[in-house]
Recover the amino acids of this structure.
């Protein structure tokens, strides 16, 4: 039976994960892409970064987005958190602060999972090296819900 997750459980799932799927609209078509992220529970936002391209262009035009993170053990045992929110680029002196918060948050997620964290932010995404300075952004959370199933 599928049940609703409590908010504390949703936040815990977000804290221990660093890969999620970002949903956005480009033109009249939906797109979903995996991204590396950090959930900042104090600011109630998802923090990430990207090289210039399709995703950023789309979110600049229409800033309403969705985000999902899953933990799947089997078809009978899974948890999923869904977020609706708004894309916002981080500019100026705040950029470095958010990028550091992102990197530290991802490292902490690795530690919670007892995985070896990457040494450098470039290790999160190797393709950025060839595409210039990344754009740091956040998704301000309007709505969070979670579902789970256990056997």
């Amino acid at each position: 039976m599928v049940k609703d997750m409590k908010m504390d459980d949703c936040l815990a799932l977000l804290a221990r994960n660093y890969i999620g799927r970002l949903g956005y609209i480009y033109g009249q078509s939906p797109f979903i892409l995996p991204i590396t992220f950090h959930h900042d529970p104090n600011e109630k936002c998802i923090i990430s970064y990207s090289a210039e391209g399709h995703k950023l262009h789309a979110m600049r035009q229409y800033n309403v987005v969705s985000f999902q993170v899953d933990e799947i053990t089997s078809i009978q045992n899974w948890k999923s958190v869904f977020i609706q929110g708004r894309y916002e680029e981080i500019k100026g002196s705040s950029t470095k602060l958010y990028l550091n918060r992102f990197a530290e948050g991802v490292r902490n997620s690795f530690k919670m999972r007892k995985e070896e964290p990457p040494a450098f932010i470039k290790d999160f995404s190797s393709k950025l090296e060839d595409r210039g300075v990344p754009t740091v952004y956040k998704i301000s959370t309007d709505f969070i819900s979670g579902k789970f199933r256990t056997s």
